[in-house]
């Protein structure tokens, strides 16, 4: 029984490693040449696997891309949530939590710039099969920010007049756009430098008390 469990676990780990390689290959190629121009053969070649391996893991190129969106946004959401939780454990304020989440978001984008470019580009498209999935995963990111804002309103740290959904979306958008501008046009700036600029904006626009 133990041997069987171990074997199954090993197989699962290998499959996840393969899927990760396929995600990385797909996001790089699609960022370079677009979704339509990218073929399954190219994804397989870039990942170093057989074409059949792609179809074994994903029914089609579209399904691969949809799962890529879920995977990437899942990583981002987990990173933001962890930043907020660590701030709470350290006794920080909700503004501190938002600030930590901004830094976590910048760190994620610096690590996965190609994915971020694709995610932002796809948000503006309306003819994709995965549009509904994109809206779901986008809400997952925004919801983490909304939770912190609502907690701040409840404890009196934020004004109860703020529009929580719109403010959360604005904060996510601020980080995405500022980070892409940083990566594309100001790559010489450090993460600390960019974070400091957005942090000052946060202190003045959200807390209103510093």
Automatic annotation (TrEMBL):
The keyword DNA-binding applies. Keywords: DNA-binding, Transcription, Transcription regulation. Pfam families: TetR_C_24, TetR_N. SUPFAM superfamilies: Homeodomain-like, Tetracyclin repressor-like, C-terminal domain. Residues 16-76 form the HTH tetR-type domain. InterPro entries: Homeodomain-like_sf (IPR009057), HTH-type_TetR-like_transc_reg (IPR050109), HTH_TetR (IPR001647), KstR2_TetR_C (IPR041490), Tet_transcr_reg_TetR-rel_C_sf (IPR036271). The keyword Oxidoreductase does not apply. It comes from the Bacteria. Residues 39-58 bind DNA. This is TetR/AcrR family transcriptional regulator. It comes from Streptomyces chiangmaiensis.
């Amino acid at each position: 029984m133990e041997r069987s469990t171990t074997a199954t676990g090993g197989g699962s780990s290998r499959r996840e490693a393969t899927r990760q390689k396929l995600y990385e290959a797909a996001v790089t190629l699609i960022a370079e040449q677009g979704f339509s121009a990218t073929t399954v053969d190219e994804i397989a070649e870039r990942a170093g696997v057989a074409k059949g391996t792609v179809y074994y893991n994903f029914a089609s190129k579209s399904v691969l891309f949809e799962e890529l969106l879920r995977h990437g946004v899942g990583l981002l959401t987990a990173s933001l949530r962890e930043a907020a939780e660590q701030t709470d454990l350290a006794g920080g304020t909700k503004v501190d939590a938002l600030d930590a989440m901004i830094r976590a978001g910048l760190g994620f984008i610096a690590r996965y710039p190609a994915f971020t470019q694709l995610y932002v580009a796809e948000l503006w498209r309306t003819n994709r099969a995965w549009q509904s999935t994109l809206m779901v995963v986008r809400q997952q990111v925004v919801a983490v920010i909304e939770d912190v804002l609502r907690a701040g309103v409840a404890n009196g740290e934020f004004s109860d007049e703020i529009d929580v959904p719109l403010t959360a979306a604005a904060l996510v958008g601020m980080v995405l756009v500022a980070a892409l501008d940083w990566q594309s046009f100001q790559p010489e700036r450090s993460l600390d430098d960019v974070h400091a600029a957005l942090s000052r904006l946060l202190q003045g626009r959200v807390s209103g008390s510093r």
